[in-house]
Amino acid sequence: MIEASDRVNRASDTPVRSPVVSTPQITRPGGTYDVDRSDAEYRSWLKEAVRKVQADANRSADTHLLRFPLPEQWGIDLYLKDESTHPTGSLKHRLARSLFLYGLCNGWIRPGRPVIEASSGSTAVSEAYFAKLIGVPFIAVMPRTTSPEKCRLIEFHGGRCHFVDDSRKMYEASAALAAETGGHYMDQFTYAERATDWRGNNNIAESIFRQLELERFPEPAWIVATAGTGGTSATLARYVHYMQYDTRICVADPENSCFFDGWTTGDPDVTCDRGSRIEGIGRPRMEPSFVPGAIDRMMKVPDAATVAAVRALEAAIGRRAGGSTGTGLWSALKIVAEMVAEGRTGSVVTLLCDPGDRYLDKYYSDAWLAEQGLDIAPYTAAIGSLLETGVWPD
């Protein structure tokens, strides 16, 4: 959340419109900073920054819709929307682009001022890319346990990593850095659901339905998402309602996350005392961008089931994916099993959020599983039983 003091500072950033005799300055905690040099110069920079971000969208082809193999006689098709093919390798590329356009058009992102984000990794990678694209510094505030590969990618794109020992402290640390540097705290957890145009404009929901047009079940029975900010599930659900589809939206939540508990109890203030082991999803509080009233169902997914699912995905289609993909895939497979049991046909869609090579030392490491005390064998057996017999074991 952006603190009141930060809003006051933003108001002080209003460009000087009269002839400038000497460069006006503003004082913030940690130093004194020049106000942007002139209205005309700032507007010229702004137009060019927005053009660059929009040009990135024009250069980016749509992501693929992959089929997960299921027995033909079931009459059920399972798809994964492969978001790992974005320029920064994850679903968060869409979010980062939207957040940068939102921040630029609101006048929050300014030339020479850093953008700061609280992130467990993938959002920070994508935001570092867009910060470099428009020429502003970027600082990622992240848990110390974030995968080294994600840290390397942030630095590759010109960003800097600022680590915290407790993931619950990322918000305060990000706001403090913004105040100290005169920068903008992007705050994906507040703005994700409003920065994206959920009515269409080539968002992920519109893309899924367009790609399904020639399939045998073009209107999916279910779309399964996972929640980090909650922005993707909000976009999917709002679009479905807006377009008057019968598709239902399910959100899969990992261990050590509050979205499921908040949704089932109706308590927006629910918290938990540990961070999620599944990077990119799961939060210790109900984030402002999560819209519980828009979705139809939630599932709580054990972390061992998540790992079993990403390994089953590799065995099925030869693709390694990150943990968040496994959380969604596990829930999608359970929905498939329910449809088989009830004799229903149709399609189910979930997301391939990012590539597995960012997590080789975690979800694909037996040593990490042993260290975490995770036994994936029962969950691997459950997936195998479903795919061989059509029955989900009790």
UniProtKB/TrEMBL annotation:
Region listing for Disordered, in residue ranges: 1-33
Top-level EC class as recorded in UniProt: lyase
Pfam hit, one: PALP
Record's catalysed reaction(s): L-cysteine + H2O = hydrogen sulfide + pyruvate + NH4(+) + H(+)
Cofactor(s) needed: pyridoxal 5'-phosphate
Composition skew (Basic and acidic residues), residue ranges: 1-10
Domain Tryptophan synthase beta chain-like PALP: 63-354
Taxonomic superkingdom: Bacteria
Sites bearing N6-(pyridoxal phosphate)lysine, chain numbering: 92
EC number: 4.4.1.1
Assigned keywords, A-Z: Cytoplasm, Lyase, Pyridoxal phosphate
Family membership noted in the UniProt record: Belongs to the cysteine synthase/cystathionine beta-synthase family. Cds1 subfamily.
PANTHER family, A to Z: CYSTATHIONINE BETA-SYNTHASE (PTHR10314)
Job of this protein: A cysteine desulfhydrase that generates hydrogen sulfide, H(2)S. The H(2)S produced by this enzyme modulates the balance between respiration and glycolysis, and contributes to redox homeostasis. Probably eliminates toxic levels of Cys (which can induce oxidative stress).
The protein, known as: L-cysteine desulfhydrase Cds1
Source organism (scientific name): Streptomyces lannensis
